[in-house]
Amino acid sequence: MANPLIDVQKHGQSIWFDNISRDLITTGELRGMVENDGLLGVTSNPAIFEKALASGVGYDPATKALVLQGVEEPKDIFEHLAIQDIQLATDIFYPVYQQTEGRDGFISMEVSPHLANDTEATAEEARRLHKAICRDNLMIKVPATTAGIPAIRQLISEGININVTLLFSVDMYEAAARAYMEGLEKRQAAGDDIARVASVASFFVSRVDSLVDQKLEAVQGKNAAETERLFGKIAVANSKLAYLRYQELSATEQWKGLAAKGARPQRLLWASTSTKNPNYSKTLYVDELIGRDTVNTVPDDTFHAFKAGGTVRTTLTEDVDSAKDIVQALEQVGVSMKDVTDQLLAEGVKKFSDAFDQLLSSVEQKRESFLELSKSR
N or C: which end of the chain has fewer CB within 10 A? Predict the structure, then answer.
């Protein structure tokens, strides 16, 4: 029986899972997704870990053990738990990493979002997590802020696999892609191997439509006919233009020189691909973004919806001229794409920072409850 999750691989795309939890790992569910659905990787972020740790009791035994061992800081407790999850998951995916010769099989863990505007602190935390987890198929997530781009360049030069996250604009995607290439060039100049360094550029999708649709509603009264055709169209168009930029960069002499030395392409990864608007297809941001040298990291609901009824064909290179026209039309009705992407980046950093703070608050509450329980005995 056909499985769209596997069939997309024929079109050069890998499906990763945008979720992680202790239960997902220990019940065998994650391994089953690898064996039965061709799952090729996993991504995580502070919001995902916050949801996993705050709900249920799956982490309680490990948390209690850490508390009774004297681990006091909530961040230290969280990192112990998260690092163990990441290590267990990387071990599950290591055969995939080997079978794909280092193309897939990666698990991502993000640096603290509170460091998003500090280059040195971001690089230092990335190095620390890379060393602590100590797995070849680990990717460290670094946000594509102004401070994040030089950190990405430096970390790539050190041979650390990087998932560039919170990309919303085509121009910032290009900055991330150039940072990757420059990092590889620096590494090559030092005489180090560049063939095993991997990176993806996580380009966010659904959040673009959510914000643009909101802005279109605000101007619709003045341009009803023009705005109507733009609802729910900008995110896919923006992503197709990012992929076009990827193709253009792949044709440069800079990249060709690196590829000749064995460098791996930095694949575009479509992130935030669940549909927020109930009027849009649940598989919209998977169906419309299938193409060679890409990854789509999907949350649970989207994973199952695409498996049940996804449409598989190479869609990324379809209607590219139309995508350009749609983005230009957005500007013409008074909605600035730059303002949209700048706002989304700022909001993205804040959302992940808030989720990280809530996560640490949840850990602290559990720590206090376990201490109280131990005292009462």
Answer: N
* Spacing of C-alpha 127 from chain mean position: 19
> Rounded to two decimals, what is the model's pTM?
0.96
Domain ranges of the chain: 7-206+239-307+343-369
Interior/surface letters 299-322, b for 16+ CB within 10 angstroms, e for the rest: beebbebbbeebebeebbeeeeee
Higher-confidence position of 377 and 215: 215
- What is the C-alpha to C-alpha distance for residues 220 and 361, in angstroms, rounded to an integer? 42
| Torsion over CA: 245, 350, 55, 377 (sign) | positive
In 38-169, which ranges are continuous DSSP H helix?
46-54, 60-68, 74-99, 119-133, 148-157
Other C-beta atoms closer than 10 Å to the C-beta of 297 total 26
- pLDDT, tens digit (0-9, with 9 covering 90-100), for 231-260: 999 999 999 999 999 999 999 999 999 999
* pLDDT single digits (tens) 73-84: 999 999 999 999
CA distance 123 to 197: 16
Q: Where are the beta strands (DSSP E) in 192-241?
A: 199-204
Q: Name every residue whose Cβ is closer than 8 Å to that of residue 209 and which is 6 or more positions away in sequence.
A: 232, 233, 234, 235, 276, 277, 280
Catalytic residues: 141
- One-letter amino acid at 51 equals K
**Residue 237, CA distances (Å) to 192, 216, 267, 278 in order:** 38, 16, 18, 20
Question: 273-294: buried (b, 16+ CB within 10 Å) or exposed (e) per residue?
Answer: bbbeeeebbbbbbbbbbbbebb
**51/26 Cα distance (integer angstroms):** 17
Cβ atoms of residues 41 and 295 within 8 Å: yes
- Using one digit for the tens of pLDDT, what is the confidence trace for 290-347? 999 999 999 999 999 999 999 999 999 999 999 999 999 999 999 999 999 999 999 9
Q: Rounded to 5 degrees, what are φ and ψ at 251?
A: -95, 0
Number of residues that this document lists for the chain? 377
CATH assignment of 7-206+239-307+343-369? Answer: 3.20.20.70
In sequence order, what E strands does 169-313 have? Answer: 199-204, 267-271, 294-298
